[in-house]
C-alpha cells in the first residue's frame, strides 16, 4: 500500500478491498466541504446532523439535517458512486446545508480514508470531509474522563 501523508492509496486488489472495508459499517459525520472555489466552502456546526453510513450490502443511509436519504453505492478501488435513492425533502431552515450536501453526494467520484478516522469524498467541485463518529465519541469520552 502506498502512503501519501496519512492517506492510504490502494495500489493492488487487496489494498482496494481493505480500503473499501474501512469505509463500511461506520457512521461518518460531515465536518466541512473544501470547495475548489473558496466562497463555496462551508463548515458544519453540528456534524451529527449530516451523516453517511455505508453498509456492507452496498446500501447507504444519509442524514442531511432534518432529511433522510438512502440508496445504493458501488466501490471499485478508490472510486465510489452513490446512486440517488429515496429521500425526504423537508425545508430545514435558512442556514441548513441539506440541499448542498445531497447534491454533492451525487457528484462524488473518489474516496480516501485517513487513519480510519477521516473519510474524504472527492467531487468535481471539492472535497467532503467526514470524521468517524465512533472515534469522535471515544475522543470526547476520554476528554471528559480527564
UniProtKB/TrEMBL annotation:
List the Pfam families: META
Question: Which residues are in the DUF306 domain?
Answer: 22-130
Q: Which InterPro entries match?
A: DUF306_Meta_HslJ, HslJ-like_sf
Spell out the protein name for this chain.
Answer: META domain-containing protein
Organism of origin: Methylomonas subterranea
Amino acid at each position: 500500500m502506498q502512503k501519501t501523508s496519512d492517506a492510504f492509496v490502494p495500489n493492488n486488489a487487496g489494498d482496494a478491498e481493505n480500503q473499501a472495508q474501512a469505509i463500511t459499517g461506520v457512521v461518518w459525520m460531515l465536518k466541512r466541504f473544501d470547495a475548489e472555489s473558496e466562497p463555496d466552502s462551508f463548515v458544519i456546526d453540528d456534524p451529527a446532523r449530516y451523516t453517511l453510513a455505508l453498509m456492507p450490502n452496498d446500501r447507504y443511509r444519509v442524514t442531511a439535517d432534518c432529511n433522510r436519504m438512502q440508496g445504493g453505492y458501488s466501490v471499485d478501488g478508490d472510486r465510489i458512486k452513490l446512486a440517488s435513492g429515496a429521500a425526504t425533502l423537508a425545508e430545514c431552515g435558512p442556514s441548513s446545508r441539506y440541499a448542498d450536501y445531497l447534491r454533492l453526494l451525487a457528484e462524488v467520484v473518489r474516496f480516501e480514508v485517513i487513519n480510519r478516522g477521516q473519510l474524504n469524498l472527492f467531487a468535481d467541485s471539492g472535497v467532503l470531509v467526514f470524521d468517524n463518529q465512533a472515534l469522535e465519541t471515544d475522543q470526547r469520552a476520554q476528554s471528559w474522563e480527564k
